[in-house]
Amino acid sequence: MEFQRIILVHYHEIGLKGRNRGVFEKRLQKNLEALLGAYPIVTIHRISGRLLVFLKEGTSLELANECADAILGVPGVARVSCGFKCEQEMEAMGRAACIALAEAEPFQTFKVSARRNHTTFPIDSMQLNRDIGAVLCEEFPAKIVQMKGQDVTVGVEVVEGSTYVYARSIRGIGGLPVGSSGTVVSLLSSGIDSPVALWRMARRGAVCVGVHFSGRPQTSDASEFLVDDIARVLERTGCIGRVYVVPFGDYQREISLACPPGLRVILYRRLMFKVAEEIARRERAGALVTGESLGQVASQTLDNIRATDAAVAMPVLRPLIGSDKLEIIDAAQRLGTFEISSMDAPDCCTLFMPRNPETHAKLADVEAAEAAYPVEEWVQALADAAEPHDYACPAYRPPRKTKAR
Ligand code: ATP
Ligand code: MG
């Protein structure tokens, strides 16, 4: 191959004015460098509002496309374009455009869109559009130039001594780079909803730390394996740094022995929130996240949400609160966690469940029932017993003193 393959990574510029911008770009660059270790990449540069991924000489189209697919799913990436680097010289640019366009098949219509940045290159972008368009028309006589609604746009960017030419271009996941919005602690069951909720926060730039409450030792550790599988899927986009597994079964048992049955679930959930909040403090996180959606199950009524929220001081974010189950399932399928989440595993949710859980708990009744237990002591004991499992997340810094296993 005559030209070196490159991948251009575009990001949205909204909200990126002033000092934010450099931080955002550096974060995205670092995340991509860490996540793309398996691909033949020479280097990643920042260049006039884009990141440029340089692939090794001789990289095949298949591998370049695979690499582009991996980039697409990374938060902060608005668009990915595959093409070539060439000289600032018309003939080379024309040849590179022909190869790039051929790789964008199948298509019917196209146009050329050139951009010239801080350059002494003598030909302006309008003229570049016409000249390279003419070369392409000759090479692809069956294709039609179309200025609006075209199938393919051939990008030609003349910038800093080189030219980058591309045609195959795909929309990315969007959002902000993980690490640009602080840290959240996400309550992660092995169900369908919570991985999607975590992912929504990651897409807005939050580093996520999961907390999973296992029914162990009252149940098996099956749910813990599912959560680990889920975390490994999330890990591919660099959004999850750690998952704490909290053996919760004995505490549920304690609660179930004396608590009015209707209030059990709310007491379990308040204790979960408190432990998650304590872990969030230790992780210097700013909020808790759950996968709740209004009215989906008994514990997700407004009254019960209020009764659980009152247990903690930290904000509880619920990115799925207004989503329907089918939308959440679609999102889980795209994310790649649906199949894992659909497997059955007993976790603390299935343990010691009352026959008729209260759907409109009164906070005063809940607090009275809870007063029978040494909750603050339990919270510290459970947070101390939480078992950290680490995942590759370039933006995550673990707190001191908690070694992962
Ligand atoms: P999911 O599909 O996420 O399991 P769900 O529809 O089963 O949710 P609930 O069981 O009421 O609903 O759980 C609501 C939220 O509480 C979950 O989305 C999750 O954030 C949190 N949660 C529930 N069970 C656990 C658990 N065992 N460990 C950690 N968080 C949990
Ligand atoms: Mg569940």
Give a written overview of the molecule.
This protein has 405 residues and is of the alpha/beta class. The chain has two domains: 4-171, VC0802-like (2-Layer Sandwich); 183-390, Rossmann fold (3-Layer(aba) Sandwich). The chain contains 13 helices and 14 strands. The protein has helices at residues 20-35, 61-72, 90-102, 125-139, 193-203, 222-235, 249-258, 264-282, 302-309, 325-335, 338-341, 363-370, 375-385, and strands at residues 4-10, 41-47, 50-55, 77-86, 109-117, 144-145, 152-159, 162-174, 183-187, 207-214, 240-247, 287-289, 316-317, 387-390. It has an eight-stranded mixed sheet with strand order 2-3-1-4-8-7-5-6. Strands 13-12-9-10-11-14 form a six-stranded mixed sheet, sandwiched between helices. Helix 5 links the parallel strand 9 and strand 10. Bound molecules: adenosine-5'-triphosphate and magnesium ion. Residues 189, 191, 349 line the site of magnesium ion. Residues 187-189, 191-194, 211-213, 290-292, 296-297, 299-300, 347-349 line the site of adenosine-5'-triphosphate (ATP).
* Total number of beta strands: 14
Identify the CATH architecture of the largest domain: 3-Layer(aba) Sandwich
Query: What is the CATH topology assignment of the largest domain?
Result: Rossmann fold
Give the fraction of residues assigned to helices.
Answer: 25-40%
- CATH superfamily grouping of the largest domain: HUPs
Bound molecules: adenosine-5'-triphosphate, magnesium ion
Q: Which oligomeric state applies?
A: single chain
Given helix and strand content, the structural type is: alpha/beta
Radius of gyration: 26 Å
Which series of helices and strands comes N to C? EHEEHEHEHEEEEHEHEHHEHEHHHHE
The biggest beta sheet is recorded as:
8 strands, mixed
Strand numbers in spatial order across the main sheet: 2-3-1-4-8-7-5-6
Q: Count up the helices.
A: 13
